[in-house]
Amino acid sequence: MVYFLGVDAGGSHCRSRLTDQNGRILGSAEIGAANARIGIANLWPLLMQVTELACQEAGLNKNDWSSVHAAFGIAGLSRPGLQRALEDMPSPFAAIRYTGDDEIANIGAHRGHDGAILILGTGSIAHIRIDGKSETLGGYGFPISDEASGAWLGLESIRHSLRAYDGRIQKTIFTERVIHHFSDDILGLVAWMDAATATDYALFAPWVIEAGIEGDPVAYSIIQKAVAYIENFIEVIFQKGVARCCLMGGLAAPFMPWLSNHISCKLSPSQGDALDGALILSGLKF
Amino acid sequence: MVYFLGVDAGGSHCRSRLTDQNGRILGSAEIGAANARIGIANLWPLLMQVTELACQEAGLNKNDWSSVHAAFGIAGLSRPGLQRALEDMPSPFAAIRYTGDDEIANIGAHRGHDGAILILGTGSIAHIRIDGKSETLGGYGFPISDEASGAWLGLESIRHSLRAYDGRIQKTIFTERVIHHFSDDILGLVAWMDAATATDYALFAPWVIEAGIEGDPVAYSIIQKAVAYIENFIEVIFQKGVARCCLMGGLAAPFMPWLSNHISCKLSPSQGDALDGALILSGLKF
Fold first, then answer.
1. Chain B residues lying within 8 Å of A145, measured CB to CB
2. Closest partner residue to A145 among B147, B159, B239, by Cβ?
3. A119 domain-assigned
4. How far is CA A11 from CA A34, A149, B125, in A?
5. Looking at the predicted structure, is the pLDDT value of residue A39 above 90?
6. Same domain, B206 and B276
7. From the list B137, B158, B186, which residue is nearest A168 (CB)?
8. In angstroms, rounded to a whole number, what is the distance separating the alpha carbons of residues A138 and A135?
9. CATH number, domain with residue A174
């Protein structure tokens, strides 16, 4: 028997999927965050754990691992030295490949064919793949990058709400909602900011979308600014010469209705998820 | 003899000035940062140190301190409990008052009369004083606030430079200069961001101004956005009912030529510095 394993190791969760050579799913698993930021000494055991959980479900023991062709997509793999360090680890598999989590998402979305994806989640990043060569746009991190991401929407929400609190712009139901969330305590908001991560800011993203739908002028202006970034992203992606582009991530669906027709009609639906992409990379023929 | 002491305790330096009852300067001193963020246990000895240095220069020993009327302007004094904690400290002075560093700057700028100031430095904050009552606009911290500040200019510089690096906007001499500063190493730039403070971002502020003067379109667009914030700040300040407003801080002079005439003609020159303000608050008649 030959087996195929795909792993998607990201900032919020790490998932695995094991199939036979016909693509039949034998086992799958999910654990918490396992990305490059935690360092290889912490990352490697987690990658093995999520692998073992999927193998257990499939009834495979460790002797069978030598029949497994594996591919791992890892968030933040571009950190200096990490790819090399992973390749230096003793592999229990028949074959093993590593790449970024954005690349497996792209491969999955287009079933291995050339194409591009724009991921709109806590962060935002575009990934373009032409003749097996990869390129990214954005995704450099918050707050220097990742326009139109959840974290960016959250930061803009707080900025606008403080301006409204000052009387520098008009107060709206949305800006009041944000300030009330901090119990109208601006010093508390400042203390919150001192420790806030991109994930904390991204909690406000659904609020912006919801208020925008209700017609709140401040939320609407933030969404319009995000839409301008997204449409520019998509234009630049097509200028790179790809034929297909998918919008992905938790904010893809909420933003779709806001895009102009001449942009949204260029977008393609995704043909698979990131684990499909990792399985293709591991050698599975779909 | 009666003496007057003013202290300006800020995020980057802490200064003191001692005068006689005629306003003649007898001593002055400057030490490093001494603001509310470091906590009262660290702050109090620094306030006493900068006082002692000015008194030594004036030839005063500690027995003379009981003839000193003192006022301290402290950055971040609004942190919960700090004012009370300072007032509970045993005072060696004839009289002692505490307020924010923005308030003493305002009092100094208008020689104790009602007025407003907009401080454009590493951060930005407006302070308005009418009938002895204070109000502030902005100044909630970076990155949620402090538009048009040095830190804000720096963040915008990096954001635009990364967009240009991606090909999402046109590269210019300015965006290339910013990327070259990080040795064209985007991963290095991301690592820098992980640890960067408002002060680190503010290092790019003079670059934006300089490139804007040279006509660089990206730097120019950042300056125009900052100018819109500054002009809105000033409009809102005058709507509060003050007759005079001064632009202050390290970025005041660089921004003056960019403001429209109908705004800049409303601005007044400053009549004194923050230490003058603290001395007025301590009871000195100018």
1. 159, 162
2. B159
3. no
4. 6, 15, 36
5. no
6. no
7. B137
8. 10
9. 3.30.420.40
Contact A11, A31 (CB under 8 A): no
Whether residues A180 and A255 fall in one domain: yes
Q: Do A277 and A192 lie in a common domain?
A: no
Residue B279 backbone phi and psi in degrees, to 5: -65, -40
Amino acid at A173: I
pLDDT in tens, B95-120: 999 999 999 999 999 999 999 999 99
Does residue A236 sit in the same domain as residue A255?
yes
**Same-domain status, A254 and A278:** no
- Amino acid identity of residue B128, one-letter, is I
| Degrees to nearest 5, angle at CA B261 with B258 and B263 | 85
Minimum-distance CB partner of A159 among B137, B144, B163: B144
* Residues B254, B172 share a domain: yes
Answer whether A168 sits within 8 Å of B236, measured CB to CB: yes
Confidence of residue A11 (pLDDT cuts 50, 70, 90): confident
Residues B166 and B192 both lie in one domain: yes
Spatial separation of the C-alpha atoms in residues B121 and B248, rounded to whole Å: 8
Q: State the total domains in chain B.
A: 2
Chain B residues touching residue A239 (CB < 8 angstroms): 167
* Cβ pair A219, A172 in contact under 8 A: yes
Whether B191 is covered by a domain: the verdict is yes
Q: Cβ of A168 and B233 within 8 Å?
A: yes
Residue A123: DSSP 8-state:
S
> Which chain A residues are Cβ-neighbours of B190 within 8 angstroms?
140-141, 144
pLDDT tens digits in sequence order for chain B, 286 residues long: 899 999 999 877 899 999 999 999 999 999 998 888 788 999 999 999 999 999 999 999 999 999 999 999 999 898 888 999 999 999 999 999 999 999 999 999 999 999 999 999 999 999 999 998 999 999 999 999 999 999 999 999 999 999 999 999 999 999 999 999 999 999 999 999 999 999 999 999 999 999 999 999 999 999 999 999 999 999 999 999 999 999 999 999 999 999 999 999 999 999 999 999 999 999 999 7
Best of B78, B83, B140 to disrupt the A interface (most A CBs within 10 Å) is B140
Quick check: is B210 in a domain?
yes
Range of the domain at A49: 3-111+271-282
Half-sphere exposure of A48 (CA within 13 A, CB side): 15
Residues B104 and B169 in one domain: no
Q: Is residue B92 part of a domain?
A: yes
What does the alpha-carbon distance between residue A77 and residue A11 come to, in Å, rounded to a whole number? 12
Inter-chain residue contact B190 with A140, CB threshold 8 Å: yes
Q: Which of A140, A162, A166 sits opposite B186 (nearest CB)?
A: A140
Q: What is the ipTM of this complex?
A: 0.89
